[in-house]
Structures are given as C-alpha cells and as structure tokens.
Amino acid sequence: MRRILFFAFLLVLLFPLSARAEDSPRLTPVVRAVQSVAPAVVNITTSQVVEENVNPFADLFAQQFGNPMLRDFFGRGGKRKVTRQSLGSGVIIDGRKALVLTNAHVIAGASSITVRLLDGREFEAELLGSDPDFDLAVLRLNKAGSLPQAAMGASGDLLMGETVIAIGNPYGFSHTVTTGVISASGRTIRSDQGTFTDLIQTDAAINPGNSGGPLLNILGQLIGINTAIQANAEGIGFAIPIDKARRVVDELLSKGAVAHVWLGLLAQNLDQSLAGYFNLSSTRGMLVTEVYDGSPGARAGIKPGDVLLSVEGVPVEDREHYLQLLRNYVTGQRLALNLFREGKSLNLTAEAGAFPVERVPELAFGRWGLTLAASPQGALAVSQVRSGSPAQKLGLQPGDLVLKLGGIVLERPEDFAEAFARYRMRNSLLLLVVRENRRYYVKLLI
Fold first, then answer.
1. What pTM was estimated for this model as a whole?
2. Which of 20, 158, 263, 438 shows the greatest Cβ crowding within 10 Å of its Cβ?
3. Do both 349 and 377 map to the same domain?
C-alpha cells in the first residue's frame, strides 16, 4: 500500500495539475482556438485632429431644424482644433515583420495609430497600405521584435453551420470573445460606401470596435476579417473572406495600392423599351455598347449587343452597380459572367485585368474628348480637345484648369486616371473649371 501511495505521489510531482488540465472537458476546441490566437489579436486606437465650432449650439440647431445654414450662423464664433479618438481591432498576420491586418475604416483619417497587444505592450504603427473599396489596411508596428501571429486558414471551403469565433474590442472592452456559426457565404450588401460582395455572414456577435478583428474556425485558423454589422438587425454580422484579404494584402505590400480592375466594356442602362426589345423580364443588367480591343472582355468573347446580367452570381442592377462590383475583385481573378445574347443565356469566364492607366489619355480622349496635363499652377490643365466631342460641345478650351472631376480633386495625372476609372460610364459629369481666374461648375454630357 505504501508503495502504491509513493508512486501516486511521484505522479503528482511529475505531472502537475496544469499538465493534467489538458484533459479537462472545459478545454473545448473553442477555448483552445482562443488561447492560441488571442495573443495575436490587437487593440487599435487612432487619433484624428478635426475642427469643430466653438459655439456648441451650431451643430445642435443645424441638426434639430434640418438647416445646415444654421451651423454657419451659430458657428461664427470661430472654430477650434480637437483630437478625437476611435477604437478598433486587428490581427497580426506576420509576427516576424510585425504586420497587422485591419479594416480601412478603422484607421481612416488617423494622424496617429497606437496598437496594444494582449500582454500589455504598446507600439506606434505605420500605415503600409489601405484600400477603402475592400475595407482592408495593413499596418507595421514600429520597433517591434518577433510577435505572435495568427495561423492562416482558407475561406474557399467554408461549411454552413460550422462553428466560428470572433475576437475583438467592442465598445473598448479588450479581447472579447463571441461565438456563432457561419450563416451563409457569398453575401452581397450595399451601403453608403458602395457594394461589397463575397462576404461571410455569421451570427457571432460583432459590435462597434470589433471591426478589423479576426473570424476564426474551430481549429483557430484565420478565415475572415470582421467588417460590418447589418443595420437594425440582430445576429447578422459580416466578414471579409481571408482568401480575398490575402490577395489584397499582397497587392498593398508589393505596390502600395490595389489596382482597379476592368473588363474593357462600355455600356448603357436598360429601360422598359430595351428590355422589351430583348424580351427580358426586367430592366436589370446593362447593354454592352463597346468592347475595347485587347481587353479582358474581348478575350472572353463579349460582344457589343450582349446584355450582362450577373458577375460571380451577383445580379447587375445597372452600369454604376457593375463598376461597384468590379471594385471587389483583384487582378488575375477569374470572373463568371452571365449574359443574354440573341435570345439565349450565355455563360462566359473573363480574367479581370488591371485597369490600363497608361491608356487613360487615349481612352478619355475617345470617351470625353479631352486630355489633361500637369500645369505650373499645381492643377491639371486641358491640353487637347477633340472636335465634335462632349468636351468641345461644353466649350472647354486648351489651357482651362480642371480642379475637380466628379468627386475627385485633380492634382496629378494619377488623379485623372482614378477619375476616368470610376466615372468612365457616366452620361454626365460635374467639373470644376478655372478660366481667367474665375471658377465655374460645368456639366459634361457624354
């Protein structure tokens, strides 16, 4: 008996309680996943310097009576600069390089970014790249050594109903864990910022402050970046699939930005008359009017007269919606297209190409009838106007300065390329033009 007790005492010494706890039923797969990834989840605090009215009633009266002029009236006392802070989450995806992945809206407009780890360490962060169309940003922590990192998973084989885990900092409560299941994949949502496609839907609680945090599978692998909450709903959250996020990160790190993609199409919206002509049941979709030579659309076999109905299974509402959809994809991604041609449904596959920035002068000259070049005044000036073009009909002349095109301020040729990429299918466009030191807002009709 004494010998048995002696050996039992040795077992206690050799295998302490902490080791035997590995067999505890409390140590569920969820607990194991959280323990492995939590050290790589970070709290992000941003600071932004903004101006506000000295008179605190300026914004109150403007909001109460719905008249923005009241803000100017009551705000005549001047403005002051104040520093505002916001909170978000992120996840370390490369511990050796100290890289953190988060949402673009978490760090938008920030003048400084501070990142705090689970162990209490804090680092100033540098923004390496951000893309609001994908709502993703990559940070690098300054003066950080080797850090913990999350294990990468895959989002291409998700199972409806499988358990998922969200970790973040909702309402400032650090490292909060919530669980749920994958409710659906491939979701599309529309917001004031545009259309976002291919999202993971989950019922894991995601609240303000969770944005940018990880969505994990039961193995503790990163399968998504939490990004949005459906307004006026409970139990509906969304995450960006990690497969898409990795492609975006690669472009941000290698090029500093994610290139616009295009298929090389021009199109017009459908109306009831056109829908009836094509024997379509609705006006959804867009009628292809031109396919640029050598473009991805031309290589895929798209032709003028085709009606594009969907991209990657997402119905195309109109040509503006089509451009919004393209901003969800990256160069080289193969896109499944559904078209209507000569009374029949047609499925094609096109490889998304990088928008050809070098062709913008040629394309804009053909579409709008003008080219812009840098000027000594620090803006862009009209350098050429095509005879009979929309630009000539508007009355634009070489030497006119164009300060703004649509919602984009023009300071560099790259800004003009960005404007053409976003507005190339518009029928009308508002320009801010300077001629003889006077400013004019004019509408370009295409």
1. 0.78
2. 263
3. no
Over its length of 446 residues, how does the chain's per-residue pLDDT go in tens digits? 445 433 443 433 344 444 445 678 899 999 999 999 999 999 999 887 656 555 555 565 455 555 555 455 555 555 665 556 678 899 999 999 999 999 999 998 888 999 999 999 999 999 999 998 899 999 999 999 889 999 999 998 999 999 999 999 887 788 899 999 999 998 988 776 678 888 999 999 888 788 899 999 999 999 999 986 665 566 789 999 999 999 999 999 998 889 889 999 999 999 999 999 999 999 999 999 999 999 999 999 999 999 999 999 999 999 999 998 998 999 999 999 999 999 999 999 999 999 999 999 999 999 999 999 998 887 899 999 999 999 999 999 999 999 999 989 999 999 999 999 989 999 999 999 999 999 999 999 98
In a domain? residue 14:
no
Which residues are known catalytic residues?
105, 135, 211
Q: Are residues 317 and 335 in the same domain?
A: yes
The answer to whether residues 76 and 163 belong to one domain is no
- Give how many domains the chain has, as a whole number: 4
* Whether the Cβ atoms of residue 222 and residue 153 lie closer than 8 Å to each other: yes
Instruction: Find all residues with CB under 8 Å of 51, minimum gap 6, and list them.
Output: 79, 80, 81, 82
User: In sequence order, which residues have a C-beta less than 8 Å from that of residue 207 and are 6 or more positions away?
Assistant: 168, 170, 171, 229
Q: Which structural domain range is residue 335 located in? A: 261-354
Residues 248 and 268 in one domain: no
